[in-house]
Amino acid sequence: MSNPHVAIVGGGIAGLAAAYFLRDEPARVTVLEGSPRLGGKLTASEVAGVPVDAGAEALLRRRPEGTELISDVGLDGELVLPGTTASGIWSRGGLHPLPPRQFMGVPADLDALAGSGVLSPDGLARARQDLGLPATARDGDVAVAAYVGARFGPELVERLVDPLLGGVYAGRSEQLSFEATLGPLAAAARSHRALSEAAASLLPPASPAGPGQPPAPRPAVFTTLASGLGTLPAAVAAASGATVRTRATVRELARTATGWRLTVGPAADPEWIEADAVVLALPARPASRLLSGVAGASAAAAGLAAIEYASMAIVTLAYPRSRFPAAQGPTAQARSGYLIPAVEGRAVKAVTFSTIKWPHLAHGDDPIDIVRCSIGRIGEESVLQRDDADLIALATAELAEETGTQGAPVDSRVTRWGGGLPQYTVGHLDRVATIRASVAAQPGLAVCGAAYDGIGIPACIGTGREAADAIRGYFKEMA
Fold first, then answer.
1. 309-422: same fold as 100-201?
2. Do β-strands 260-264 and 102-103 pair in parallel, antiparallel, or remain unpaired?
3. For 402-440, how does the pLDDT look when each residue is reduced to its tens digit (9 = 90+)?
4. By the 8 A CB rule, do 390 and 413 touch?
5. DSSP label at residue 217
6. Which CATH architecture fits 5-40+229-307+424-478?
7. Which residues of 103-118 are buried (b: 16+ CB within 10 A; e: fewer)?
8. How far does CA 437 lie from the centroid of its chain?
9. Percent of the chain, pLDDT > 70?
10. Exposed, middle or buried: residue 268 (CB in 10 Å: 0-12, 13-18, 19+)?
């Protein structure tokens, strides 16, 4: 091939990362994005004059893919750390601190769990049985609720594990895969009888504290960009050197004698693009539709069609800090936010005090507090059918009850993510293996995105790198 052409379908962070990792190849790269803008769920806009992310607002530091790419595109000077990572749980009518030693809600220290007050006395007594129960057999993948509930009982699942997983996936623990969503814990559980011991093996040792002193703070798990993670896609696109087209919806994908043909645009006025290789950086359902017409890719199309998605909305509210009672507001215990279990029957599932979590957002003597309220779990689509004003009123009312906020917000924003979060249900890892095997059998085809190995930014970037490597390997084979 002389100067081959790579078409990347999808301009979210995974597709843009794939374009960036192909920048040194002697190839032309075109990114085709159907919407009017790049970035997918990475976008920022102003609320009360403060630029605030409307989608993902943090990335994991322990996975290097995100911070390395940020450094590569020249934004490492923008990285900032949270002011606090202390968070809470709204449970049984009150706010409680999140137990300090836990892995996605699975406790490593049952005494610390007791001190949090999240569980009732009966729920705590059942959770302590984990230490004395025989090992729980596991043959293949199981639901998180089934396995964790067998160890600690249903109350711990409902009050701790479910809200933490719901905050990430907008899913439910009785459907989500133990192996896919809690992989390190699932692996550790195979060599520990008690699940609390398996969780403890994944955490750093507890830091001893002097008499009357709190434990030493743990290193920050998350980071973000001072200008917002919504600024990252444009920087990656520019650094990739790729040709980027928005409002370019790919409707069909077909094999040709020499590569691939993509049909772009409306049926009344189609455009055909020839490519030697294609990367599908799309959510599962649209990727499935494109692959359904490709001979030999039926297994990939079926596997992708089986991945469900949850919808959600983020209601961002702005208040003068004086609107929060000092004893109950976000600064009372330097809390970055809190989660609300589904069993509480509330619409808002998570609250983030953005200006407490990210102090660089606060300015002035009486700073504006930015509060993000996440609404929507899978199966709760009806609440998202309310108009923006209703969602704002709903979030405002629940926030007032939980924190004592007084008065209406001075500004607000509603961002809807319809079908935005893939559900890693039981059997997800096997589905992904089948999808990738089917795609690998197609010369010059690769996939990437949140549907496969994780929905966080570093995980999506990692799949973009893998897709680029697959295309690079294909070109070497054809040389």
1. no
2. unpaired
3. 988 889 999 999 999 999 999 999 999 999 999 999 999
4. no
5. P
6. 3-Layer(bba) Sandwich (3.50)
7. bbbbbbbbebbbebbb
8. 25
9. 95
10. exposed
CB 23 within 8 A of CB 460: no
Give, in words, the CATH class of 100-201. mainly alpha
For residues 15 and 7, give the distance between their C-alpha atoms in angstroms, rounded to a whole number: 10
- Mean pLDDT, the chain, integer: 93
- Domain ranges for the chain, please list them: 5-40+229-307+424-478, 100-201, 309-422
CATH of domain 309-422: 3.90.660.20
CA distance 76 to 324: 34
For the segment 149-200, what is each residue's pLDDT rounded down to a tens digit?
999 999 999 999 999 999 999 999 999 999 999 999 999 999 999 999 999 9
Let me know: does 445 contact 278? Beta carbons within 8 Å.
yes
pLDDT interval class at 214 (50, 70, 90): low
Q: Is the dihedral of CA 71, 75, 77, 79 positive or negative?
A: negative
DSSP, residue by residue, 64-99: HHHHHHHHHTT-GGGEE--S---EEEEETTEEEEPP
Residue 478: what pLDDT? 86
Q: Where are the alpha helices (DSSP H) in 242-362?
A: 284-291, 298-305, 354-357
- Rounded percentage of the chain residues whose pLDDT exceeds 90: 84
Which DSSP helix (H) or strand (E) runs through 178? helix 178-181
Whole-number pLDDT of residue 145? 97
pTM of the model: 0.93
Sheet holding 5-9, edge to edge: 243-245, 28-32, 5-9, 277-280, 445-447
